[in-house]
Amino acid sequence: TIYNGECSLRLYLFVLSRHPRLWWHTFKAGFYGVLRGLNIINLTTFKQKFLTFMSHIKDPQKEIELFWDKEQKNIFKWYLAQKNPDDVICSASPLYIIEPILKRINPTAKLVCSDIDMITSRIENGEVNCKGEEKVRRLAELGLTSFENGYSDSTSDVPMLKLCKNKFHITRKGKIEPFNPKYFE
């Protein structure tokens, strides 16, 4: 929500542009994308198959740092203007993608993400993708059960937003609007 775009997809395109030999992976990603679209596989399985491109990079951590060198400008200015050291960033994206940028822009913020191994693309510790009710569960594990403000760009975050006094929708252009109350009735 604090980044203008889907960072896993943007990282994928960034890596493909720097490593053209990996373009074969688009067929694999497309195949699993079709299976996901037909509901033959779940989102967790799709994500694990899609992210296998990372295992074909010599220095994946360096690629992620280079990606954020280019993409840091797409962190929404509204977030940078109001960030606090005790912020909680909760994302379905892989920890290894989000953690480097958060260390740059707000190193004391708590981070709750999908714990996916960068090389094997397996979700660690028997967990599932950090989305929907799973975000609420993980926040509760940390003792976080209520918040003053919550921001999201997706209705999949409604369970998490129910923990927030003030609920805000972030548009594709980064505009902050009140979240539609119909989702909380």
Give the strand tally.
Answer: 5
Radius of gyration: 17 Å
What oligomerization state is this entry in? Answer: single chain
Tell me the series of helices and strands, N- to C-terminal: HHHHHEHEHEHEE
Characterization of this structure:
The protein has 185 residues and is α/β, with parallel strands linked by helices. The chain has helices at residues 7-18, 25-37, 43-50, 60-71, 77-82, 95-105, 133-141, 158-161, and strands at residues 88-94, 110-114, 147-152, 164-170, 176-178. The longest helix is centred in the first third of the chain and has 13 residues, at 25-37. The radius of gyration is 17 Å and the shape is globular. It contains eight helices and five strands. The model has no long low-confidence stretch (mean pLDDT 94). The chain is 41% helix and 15% strand. α2 (25-37) runs antiparallel to α3 and α4 (60-71) crosses α6 (95-105). α6 links the parallel β1 (88-94) and β2. The strands form two sheets. It has a three-stranded mixed β-sheet with strand order 3-4-5.
What secondary-structure arrangement, pairings included, does this model have?
Blueprint: H1 7-18, H2 25-37, H3 43-50, H4 60-71, H5 77-82, E1 88-94, H6 95-105, E2 110-114, H7 133-141, E3 147-152, H8 158-161, E4 164-170, E5 176-178
Parallel strand pairs: 1-2, 3-4
Antiparallel strand pairs: 4-5
Helix pairs in contact: 2-3, 4-6
